[in-house]
Design a protein that fits this description.
Blueprint lengths: L25 H18 L26 E2 L2 E7 L7 E4 L5 E2 L20 H4 L2 E2 L14 E3 L10 E3 L4 E3 L25 H22 L10 H12 L11 H28 L1
Antiparallel strand pairs: 1-2, 2-3, 4-5, 6-7, 7-8
Helix pairs in contact: 3-4, 4-5
Length: about 270
């Protein structure tokens, strides 16, 4: 007797990715739970309820410098070069490098120099944003039509299920920096560091507006800019038709206006 099991077919857009249905029923959540379990088994997906909890980065970065498999700026698991010869450990990019084996740092989890994964098998890459990964930084994730019952607010068009912004998987679609066969960014290190400095500078500028409690670790640059603009000009349009470049220029202009206003007020007070 042939085994009978249910086989589903997600609706797909012309770009090949899934299309979120309007269904937000409990039955849909059962389906999505299975889709996330499938992704955990096949794509190393994880969030706080699904997959291996050690592989969830609640900062939403998944960067090599904060991985348990990093040792002396090298990876304990990934090798470069000929697999039939002496294996050389990958020199990691601490700020923006990552792979499917990322796990949080834990003193109770001993590691070893295993070097049994190639760059290709590990799906190692260096994020062009200079900061890291996560569903929040993946173009395959869009705002869900409604969060699920535990608050997953993004819809992943790859696995056909809702996800948390801080989750991630092996097929994250964030833009990557071209690499050499040794896993080194072809882009000059100075350029990568520039991206990191720009990101840190942006977060600090928004912190100056929103206060030191603001945390942008799990947010995209666009989301950080939107948070700052929303504080300074709540009615400012920030829909998908507004480009990232415009938001950056608009935020800078609003900050300049506020600074000039404070200086003018100070001069007026001094003149009294």
């Amino acid at each position: 007797m042939d085994l009978q099991r249910k086989v589903t077919t997600p609706t797909r857009a012309p770009d090949g990715l899934c299309v979120e249905p309007d269904d937000v029923s409990p039955d849909r959540e059962i389906y999505e739970n299975h889709q996330r379990l499938r992704a955990a088994n096949e794509l190393d997906y994880a969030d706080k309820y699904t997959g291996n909890p050690r592989t969830v980065d609640y900062q939403g970065r998944y960067n090599c410098g904060r991985c348990n498999k990093e040792q002396d700026e090298k990876c304990l698991q990934i090798y470069v070069g000929d697999p039939t010869g002496p294996r050389v450990a990958l020199k990691i990019n601490a700020d923006a490098g990552s792979c499917r084996y990322w796990e949080n740092q834990c003193a109770g989890d001993p590691e070893a120099w295993m070097l049994y994964s190639s760059i290709e098998l590990a799906a190692y890459g260096i994020a062009a944003n200079g900061v890291g990964w996560s569903c929040a930084r993946c173009p395959k994730a869009v705002a869900a039509k409604a969060p699920d019952s535990v608050g997953r607010e993004l819809y992943c068009r790859e696995i056909d299920a809702r996800v948390f912004p801080t989750a991630c998987c092996a097929v994250n679609g964030a833009e990557v920096v071209p690499m050499t066969a040794q896993g080194k960014a072809k882009r000059a290190d100075e350029d990568v560091q520039r991206l990191v400095r720009e990101r840190v500078g942006l977060v600090r500028k928004v912190e100056a507006v929103l206060g030191p409690a603001f945390r942008g670790d799990s947010l995209t640059d666009r989301e950080i800019l939107a948070a700052g603009i929303r504080q300074l000009a709540p009615a400012e349009p920030m829909g998908p038709e507004v480009s990232d470049d415009y938001l950056r220029r608009r935020f800078d202009a609003l900050v300049d206006d506020r600074t000039n206003g404070v200086l003018s007020l100070g001069r007026a007070m001094t003149a009294r």
